[in-house]
Amino acid sequence: MKIIEKLPVLHRLGLHLRAGAELARVAGSFKSVVLVSNGHHRVNGKSLLDLLTLGAIYGTLLEFSAEGEDASQAINAIRELLNSWNEKRPI
User: Fold this and answer.
1) Nearest-10 Cα torsion for 53, 54, 55, 61
2) Which of the following is catalytic: 11, 16, 40, 41?
3) Cα-based angle 81, 84, 89 (whole degrees, multiple of 5)
4) Least-confidence region, from 35-39, 72-76, 85-89
5) 11 catalytic residue (yes or no)
6) Cα–Cα distance between 51 and 36 in angstroms, integer?
7) pLDDT tens, residue by residue, 6-37
8) How far is CA 11 from CA 25, 33, 54, 81, in A?
9) What's the chain look like in SS3?
10) Interhelix angle 17-28/71-88, nearest 10 degrees
């Protein structure tokens, strides 16, 4: 099964080292292949270095695709992580 979803980067500092590490850790916890695209190039969602090359700042819309037996769970976990960044954002 393949699932594709576009989600914004909701971390106030964008997809920096710590946020990227969190995303790679979450994506890496699933068997599915996870890819992330910024519209210009697609990278491995389980690789911190690949994620950092996206240069995603706050509000950047990224396309997440997961293909495999747990694709739905992977996308759900990624969505929850990105939404949790917004909840931590100071007002």
Assistant:
1) -170
2) 16
3) 135
4) 85-89
5) no
6) 8
7) 999 999 999 999 999 999 999 999 999 999 99
8) 16, 24, 14, 10
9) CEEEEEEECCCCCCCCHHHHHHHHHHHHCCCCEEEEECCCCEEECCCHHHHHCCCCCCCCEEEEEEECCCHHHHHHHHHHHHHHHHHHCCC
10) 150
